[in-house]
Amino acid sequence: MPAEQNDPIEVVAAAIVDDLESPTVLLAARRTEPSALAGGWEFAGGKVDPGETDVQALHREIREELGVEVEIGELLEGPLERGRWPLGTAYAMSVWLAVVTEGVPAPIEDHDAVRWLTRDDLYAVEWLPADLPIVDAVATRFRP
């Protein structure tokens, strides 16, 4: 079924942690563009291309942006249909927990820095406002 004119653009992202069951750190990436978002911290990911599944898009985006392979875990349920999270009014984002299986995350595309955050400094970076509720959702999964 074709998307309707007002359907949000599909976006996928990974909340990359060190352990899918009991994380102790979360990876944040600092955006370089567009200028309105530059300097803000976010989850790596991007738009789903035509013909791609959400999972295919997520693997592609993480390879392009961070240069790593990931194992995808649980979908973090957001408030929109199909468990997505709102990104303004034009986008809807599906976010999965993920762990790195190959490589070391580096800011290759669309980012100029990456940082592992512990429970104590989870909010020490300036998260993009749309990502804050997702950070809160991940925080509830952190090991006590």
From TrEMBL:
It catalyses: 8-oxo-dGTP + H2O = 8-oxo-dGMP + diphosphate + H(+). CDD domains: NUDIX_MutT_NudA_like. InterPro entries: MutT-like, Nudix_hydrolase, NUDIX_hydrolase-like_dom_sf, NUDIX_hydrolase_CS, NUDIX_hydrolase_dom. GO terms for molecular function: 8-oxo-7,8-dihydrodeoxyguanosine triphosphate pyrophosphatase activity; 8-oxo-7,8-dihydroguanosine triphosphate pyrophosphatase activity; 8-oxo-dGDP phosphatase activity; 8-oxo-GDP phosphatase activity; metal ion binding. Keywords: DNA damage, DNA repair, DNA replication, Hydrolase, Magnesium, Metal-binding, Mutator protein. It holds the Pfam family NUDIX. Its cofactor is Mg(2+). It is an enzyme of class 3 (hydrolase). Its EC number is 3.6.1.55. SUPFAM superfamilies: Nudix. GO terms for biological process: DNA repair; DNA replication. PANTHER family: 8-OXO-DGTP DIPHOSPHATASE, NUDIX HYDROLASE FAMILY PROTEIN. This is 8-oxo-dGTP diphosphatase.
